[in-house]
């Protein structure tokens, strides 16, 4: 039983967090440096973007996680520290400065950056901000969740409590979207903490498996970022018998993890740049899991469908078109499509052809903030879910002039 | 020597064309039915969409082209005749009606449709329109070029004259964009006529090879249409020695064909839905042709880059990001990027990192109607060119409510 609780990444035992303005961003009212700290060394695992262009912080983090252990996560927003001359130096020095301040090893620091690619960066804001950041450490996760935001309009946080071998454990997470979102094997920034005891190997396995059906099923604009990373810390302070092999405890951990990651995935999609609504595509009846995932992502990734959803236009031909070109193995003659939301459900296509439906009801269904696109393939037992958002004037506005 | 001349698809000897309003569209001021007719049976070839959802007209055309011969092309706009109950019947009957009126075989008719997917369709507009269409046949290609338009803002036509074994031949073409444009092996609608004598086999080879570096390098929104088709007729009335094998004459034909298809490709991209500018990405120094094409298409297909180009924002990080995720085999540390237009040229990235540049000059360069994005990979000799357009408010507006 996984239960939602308050507290974000600070809900599990032994974690504190902070967020301050250090000056990477000019706007002094926006926090731009976040810290998550575990009082005890934790098992740690991460997944990274598959973009050939990888942010310098990812290279440094990968080195630091070679031993499967970490104690702190530091992240700035406002500059991606990518495709610049001194990226690895900056990322390494940031870890060193933070480690010195906290009295821990630099190798136990996970470092991340998000913002514009290809901008020069200096250590100056970090030199000024890190002492302040350490001083600000506390049990509220909100300042850190705010500090990692870029074009996000809301902070994205969750925490859950779950049972592991009779011991109550907790897990918390935060994530940032909201543009350049088309995760592939890894994803946007997501930081997850837990007080569950689990080996680094099992933690890496849990995370690697989980992202396939959580963050990797999100798309906002089809652009896979250079700085995607999800990192998890598990410090064992809950006192459960350490998880070191598959079994019931591992399953409980994975279920809690999935609750956290799916919640954050949905929040990222719903807060996609300029979005007015969350699109949730559920594909059922696929031949294979891979076909189901490909089709679900194909539908929520279709630019034309996204624009139609903005206009609350039940243009289901665009759903079929996307199913047809996405690469999934599908018998189009068996495809059915329904739209569903709090306002009701409307069937618009059966056996690959249109069915009569009430345009009035369809407009109501599509007018809600969360719209399910239900696609049945009639070909097998596999299913998958993917999340996206509508394409709006605001998306164009935000991205027509992001740098300035 | 390929020279541009006037006359569109009617420029070659023996072709007439017509465009009328038959009532597939409600708006009576917009022509919606086009005909291209050859007075002599022509060698004919076509390429089709790779979308699993294929418009019914494509199935009928494929059957009719089994013998590599045709005399007429009929195309309606306003309804894609796809994913409806009676699509093949409608397409077949349309060919039969037209053939009866023209006194030719129904198997010599190529049929195409473009418009909304999944809408019911009846023969009634065709029964009314086809006699009128035949009566209207004349030497002006403009009414037909208008009749195939959907959200296109301008008709797209060209004609060329070329020398084939000492004999002057002509070739003409028309195409429609302008949304759901991400051709794959085939493309949007393109109709090409020629009076050159060439065997059906050589014609099919020429077209199949050509689209790889013309229509298939265009993207507007990443959505591969269900009704893409390019068809070519060559009736031999120019009197040249028939082309039935590779050689100088075949090369001359291919060169003319490429001039026609690249012109139409560029027009389609520049008139992409809501576009304010044509983006032309030239990738050089790739390891393989496939890498070059993948990278060029990846760059002009990036939603984020398209939005930045709308805002004339020299956000070259998005070019690198797209090169990084598109799947091409690239050494990012060697990549260089320049922007060029009539206003000048500006280098923004060298060896995978930013270089100092004048933002003022960059804004001027990106403010033009045609912008070249020059990407050098420094990895080999292969190069490719792809065409796209910016992403604008207007695109969202057009597609938020396309059906109504």
Compute the number of structural domains of chain A: 2
Which two chains have the most extensive interface, and how many residues on each? A-B, 63 and 63 residues
**Class of the largest domain in chain A, according to the CATH hierarchy?**
Alpha Beta
What is the residue-mean pLDDT of chain A, rounded to a whole number? 91
Largest sheet of chain A: 9 strands, mixed
Count the DSSP helices of chain A.
11
> What would CATH call the homologous superfamily of the largest domain in chain A?
L-amino peptidase D-ALA esterase/amidase
Q: Would you tell me which CATH topology of the largest domain in chain A applies?
A: L-amino peptidase D-ALA esterase/amidase
Estimated radius of gyration of chain A: 21 Å
Please tally the β strands of chain A and state the result: 15
Please tell me what the overall shape of chain A is. globular
CATH architecture of the largest domain in chain A: 4-Layer Sandwich
**Distance from first to last alpha carbon of chain A:** 47 Å
Strand content of chain A: 25-35%
Q: Name the poorly predicted regions of chain A.
A: none
Classify the helix fraction of chain A into a percent range: 25-40%
Structural class designation of chain A: alpha+beta
Query: What's the quaternary structure here?
Result: homodimer
Order of helices and strands of chain A: EEEHEHEHHEEEHEHEHHHEEEHEEH
